[in-house]
Design goal:
Helix content is 33%, strand content 25%. The chain is an alpha/beta fold. The longest helix has 20 residues.
Length: 280
Amino acid sequence: MAQREASLDGQLVETVNFIRSKTSQKPRVGVILGSGLGSFADTLEGLEKIPTESIPHFPRSTVQGHQGFLVFGRLEGVPILAVQGRTHVYEGHPVDRVAYVVRVMAELGVKKLLVTNAAGGTNPLFRPGDLMIIVDHINFLFRNPLRGPVVDAEPRFPDMYGNYHPSYIELIERIGLEEGIPLRKGVLFVSTGPSYETAAEVQMIRRLGGDAASMSTVPEVLVARARGIKVAGISCITNLATGLSPTPLSHEEVTEIAGQVQEKFRRLVRRVLVEMDRTE
C-alpha cells in the first residue's frame, strides 16, 4: 500500500475514533455551511458540538464567518451532522485536507449531503440575497482531492454525471414553492481566490456558463461523489461580481447579506435536510 494512502487511512481511523468517543450520534445526512450561514447548526435539537481544532488531523478554519465545529443533532428525528466552518484551498490547506471532512462524514455513515456556500452573482439577472440551487459546477481550482494513490473506498475514475442529484434539485424547487421562497437555478464556477474575480474574469465565467462564483464546495462534492454520497447544493448570492456591482466587494458585505437571508435560508434548509432523508 502506498505511504500516502496508508497515512490517510490511519488518519481517518484516528479522527473517527476520537469523534465517536465524544458522541454516540450516528448521522445519516450532512450539511456543510458556508460563509455567514453557520448559525443554522445551532437550531438542531439535542446538539453536541465538537471543536474541530480538538479533532486529530482535522484542518482548522481561519476565515471570519466560519466558526470551526462539527455539530451533531436532529431535525424531526433525522440525525444530522453540520459542519460549522469549512476550510478552503486559499487558506493554504492542500485540497485533500479541504475535502477531508467528507471522508470523515462517509466513515461516520452519512449517505446524503447538502453543500451550501456564499457566492457572487455573475448572472446579471441575480441579486444579492437570492438563493440559487446548484445544478452543476465548473472547477477552476485546477486541483482535485482524488489525485494520488487510489483510496480503497473510492474509485479511480468516479462518474461526474448528476453531481447535484436531479431528484434533490426537484425537491428543493418544490419546497421553495411551498414555502414561498423564490429560488434561482444555476452553475457554480469555483476558483482558488482569495482575491475576487476581475471584471474580465467575470465576463469569461459568464461565457463559460457560470451563474455564480465561489471559492469552495467543489473539493467536497468530488469526494462525496467518489464515496457514493448523494449531493444537493444551495448558494447564497451575497453580492454581484466585479463589473456588475456598483461598489467594491468585501468579505464584510458577504457575511452581512448572508445574515440578512438567515430566516428564509433556515426554513429552506431545515425542510430540505428532512426530506432528503426520506428521498432515495
